[in-house]
Fold these 2 entries.
Entry 1:
Amino acid sequence: MSHEKIVELMSKSDDFVSGQWLSQQLGCTRTAIWKHIQHLKSLGYEFEASSRKGYRLLSKPEKMDGSEIQRQLTTKTFGRNMKLLQSTTSTQQAAHEWYATGASEGSLIVAEEQTSGKGRMGRTWHSPPGKGIWMSMILQPRIGMHRMPQLTLLAAVALCRSLRKSTGLDLGIKWPNDLLLNEKKISGILLESAGEDERLTYIVAGIGINVNWHQDDFPKDLQEKSTSLRIATGKRFKREQLLARFLNEWEPLYDLFLHKGFEPIRLLWETYSVTLGKQIAMRTSSGIFKGKALKLDADGALIIETENGSVQSFYAGDIQQLRQ
Ligand code: BTN
């Protein structure tokens, strides 16, 4: 394949190689070389490009090492049963299938790349190889279905705490569970559940973390809204370490939740929130509500004082911060 040949040719040189020389070697046009380079970038290769000198290969995509993740875990069950896939449609789908064949609480699927990553509200989640952590975990808490939103908030608290510790960044949680840095999204969480009547059978908790993206790696429509740990710090992060630390943070908080209820999690969520106290527009299936975000109630609903002075609670929705 031509793009493999390009990597082979460029790996032999630490310096720039011209587009013209590459096109001669491969017997194709310079435009075709440019297209191959764009494709390689989408696979996680990094290049420096110069209009005069051509291209220089900076790095090849880093692969995660599953044994390195296992070595750093201090958990009892979270992540102990783990699958590390090179590519999958969505780790959510892979985890549902794994559950159907017997995987249980704490089983984790991680993928280098997702070809149809899922976001909240039917959106897609871009998940190219080597740039982030794309993972889904199976949970089987013995709780009623109505407590699902609390688990979503809990995952956000655990992720926020662990990434703050790992990176020193001042990350905050936008309701219900987006992690933001300077108003840009760095991570998203999607919980999917299955159950009968009021009883939960299992949950697949999906988490996406933008780790080693450059700003121009993001698709155009996400450039303004998204960021990564690398953009924010200028440093490349070991994904194995971030992932293990997150699971090490998440499991004790999950145990705390199962034994002591939602209150300790609620308090932590409130300390990391970048939503409370702000004027927001809440979009739900029954319309848009504008008002001030006041607090989380004891069940995990967001309490809003709407423009007409009434107080309303929301368990699900999409919010946008309004200019104060
Ligand atoms: C959001 O919209 O903010 C939620 C994004 C969740 C993305 C993660 S990546 C791993 C897991 N697999 C998916 O397909 N989605 C979640």
Entry 2:
Amino acid sequence: MESPLYVARPILPDLSQLNELLEDVWSTRIVTNEGPLHNRLEEELKAYLGVPVAKLFASGTTALICAIRSLGLTEGAEIITTPLTFAATAHAIAFCGYKPVFADVCEQSLTLDPAAVETAISDRTEAVIGVHVYGTLCDVTGLQDVCRRRNLRLIFDAAHAFGSQKDGTSVGMVGDISVFSLHATKLFHTLEGGLITTGNPQLAESIRLIRNFGIASEEQVDMVGINGKMSELHAAIGLLNLPLVEAEIAARAKLRQTYDSMIAGRPGLRSQLTQPGVKLSEQYYPLIIDPEEFGRTRDDIYEEFKAHGIYARRYFWPVCSDFAPYQSEKVHSVQAIPVVDKIKDRVLCLPFHSGVKVNHIENISNIMSK
Ligand code: T4K
């Protein structure tokens, strides 16, 4: 029996290189709290991503929470977001005491629809969180336009968009703040970790303070904060993984072409929207299956894959507005979301990493062709 094939497979550096890097950590015993490796990784990420500010976090979720807190919104404020995302996006809003309001996505990109955002705005709305879901970029211009006109803050959950660019501009430079996940399942990772980028120096300073209990100096605490810091061990993994990213992107770009050819001309199958001028992060390959046209459902394919040891994922089903904590009107409000309602039973993220080999592709292709 072949070993299982998962949706994601973390890149990993040589253990010997890791040992070498950790020798200094062991000798100085500076293992966390903005240590030298942590600071070096922040510098390297600034250069790689082309951003003026890069702040590391213990996880993408902690980073989201700190990003939202840094905006200083009014108690009970509403934040409009997409339900077609990982639980963390909605949870971070609710965890900060704000109300997530779920609005619909665009049919083609599956990202938050600026027109739906406009309709969802109430007199309590203070911010919007767009998600570059699967690595497809939001309609950044459309969301920025609504937020500018309606005086709303704009955060991008860029968990799936590490390294993405639009017309040569880093995705980390749009909106007020961008938040990345550096979890093991992500293209670039630090085992667990998160990252915030922003072009706004005031927000950068608040974010830095909130990450470290609000501590400004030994004798001064300026704001309520948490422990969101990344350790030296995690930063070491990041420093060794960063040079591996380009090769992983190249392998995934090739795999994307293979998958694209596999579904080309097949009624009822489509994938991620190609966006002009966009350098993709190559995070996921979402296959969108129309059951009427294709003749089988997304769940049929999911189960058949599973029977062959192929663990594709139905991200993000159920969607956030289906979760128990968001069933009460007091906790959230949901606008009509016809596109999400239609799409949530159709997306299947295929195994998408450099560990997917020719025999895997043959298996996948055979199952799809039955
Ligand atoms: N915003 C968005 C849009 C996100 O997608 C996420 C996280 C966040 C925010 C929050 O960021 P973090 O706080 O997580 O940094 C996974 C990840 O845990 C999660 O980070 C990610 N999104 C989400 C989309 O996927 P699960 O429950 O699907 O993970 P799991 O354990 O089932 O892993 C998927 C597959 O990956 C496994 O079948 C095998 C493989 N895998 C996984 C791990 C953990 C490995 O090969 N090695 C591993 O160590 O959530």
